[in-house]
Model the fold of this input.
Amino acid sequence: MGVILLVSLIKVAVLMFFVLTSVAYLVWFERKLAAHLQGRWGPYRVGPHGLLQPLADGAKFLLKEDITPAGVDRFVYYIAPLVTMTLAISGIAMVPFGPAEIRILGVTTPLVIANINVGLLAIFAITSVGVYGVALAGWSSNSKYSLLGGLRSSAQMVSYELSLTLSVVGVLLLAGSFNLSELIVRQGGFSWRYIPQWNLFSPPFPQVLGFVCYFISAIAETNRAPFDLAEAESEIVAGYHTEYSSFKFAMFFLGEYASMITVACLATILFLGGWLSPFPQTASLYWTHYIPSAVLLIGAMALIVDGVYYKGFGRIELPVLGLVLFALSFLCSRPGIIEGIQGPFWFLGKILVVLFVYVWVRWTLPRFRYDQLMRFGWKFLFPLALLNVVLTSLAVVMGK
Amino acid sequence: MTLQMLVFLVLAAVTVAAAVNVVILRHPIHSAIALIVVMVSLAGVFLTLEAEFIAALQIIVYAGAIMVLFVFVIMLLNAGEEERTNMSRMARYVGVPLAIVLLGELAYQVGAATFSMTAQPAANGAIHGLSMLLFQDFVFPFELTSILILIAILGALVLAQRREGVPAKREQQNVS
Done:
């Protein structure tokens, strides 16, 4: 009992470190990608390629003056950012990162913190409560902009939660389970030998509609452009977090990016086959097991070559990082490790692709107007998700 | 005392404390937050009974949907802090004794029931059993309830659209 508790705590600590770091670097990724999409350089000053920018941002958030405006409802004002960040991070506890099991302190344990039977519902429960962070922050700040942002955001999140939940019903109908690991395992197999049977193209009824609905409502649910009316800077300054400064603001920031990661994880699990490799596991295609190793190798070489031509800070650091990657690449091609690394590699790869699209959408589409947002959610997205449920149910019943 | 018992006691204490706070806090938003805490810790109690499905539904439906509407309406109406009133004579001489009697009855019944109760862990988070009941044995009342809710929504819409002397339908055309 005690050892299991300890092992779980270790897993939680490792995952927390991993998630917080990746949230920080997701911000870097977004800024860099946005810049390149717009023909700019993006962060370039702090460290090579701006790689130390997240650390600088973190230090800045910690050191800035923390202002509490006059007339705020103190208790609610303080707990709102906490609620946002805690809920955003805790959803990731249900996400399985791979089929392999690892041994810590002599206990064999899967690559997931909480493998519960209703994992999917639990994540939805957590996201549905997440609206309070935004709503209460807007209300407690004693500012018209905050209040407007909070109201907009809560109305939006309640509306889009419906289509978000409905869009995954198709997947559940196909799989017959709420358990995230089981949902992934059911997506194994290939049609016509090479097309993987992920739910996005699974045989009875491909969940393309479901995926589109899911992705759009997920963007709305996480309050990101083109659905970022809650913080539309041209109308209401910064919306619900106008009055927040210093680390409280950073908590909202962390929360937004952490919930992006959760949503991307869910999209991967539900529609893109989770940790499953896109290649059939046959002997002639065994070389695909070396792809993680090859990717690391290419990264290592790129870093070393780039570092040699770099001037100033980074001339030594980048090649050293490259050597570390090189060592990792070597490790990943060893027997014993090569099997275990497949799941996490494909899982993270797919998440990165989803996040890429996420950022791409934000920097491409203009913001909705409020009435357009509501009309789109209720009169288009919701019926579409419902149609998907009906069609999938038909396909499942006919297939039996 | 087992770990489960400890978890239950903590959750129960939080639930009761939050429920008391719903009544005694003076600001509607604070009361609403306390009510959310009640809902979430009740979900925790369901978890200790291994009814994961019910726990998740409890949070999604009550904390995630109904209470959001409560908070939304309170925010929209900008309801201020409430004045604390002295109890009316009616409340003092009839309400308080009745409340005490009810509390005593509940405590007695619950206390009597707990000793003879053997909890049965719900298999697979109780999804299967619950859906069998809902969609097989009680499908007619279930559908009837949903139609009832639909009628209530439509009724609210019609009432909200109507103005003095103007039939609802024509008014709608003017709006759009």
User: Anything to note?
Assistant: DSSP finds 15 helices and four strands in chain A. Chain A touches chain B at residues 1, 73, 75-76, 116-118, 121-122, 124-126, 128-129, 131-132, 135-136, 138-140, 147, 150-151, 154-155, 157-158, 161, 165, 178 (CB under 8 Å). The longest strand of chain A covers residues 101-104.
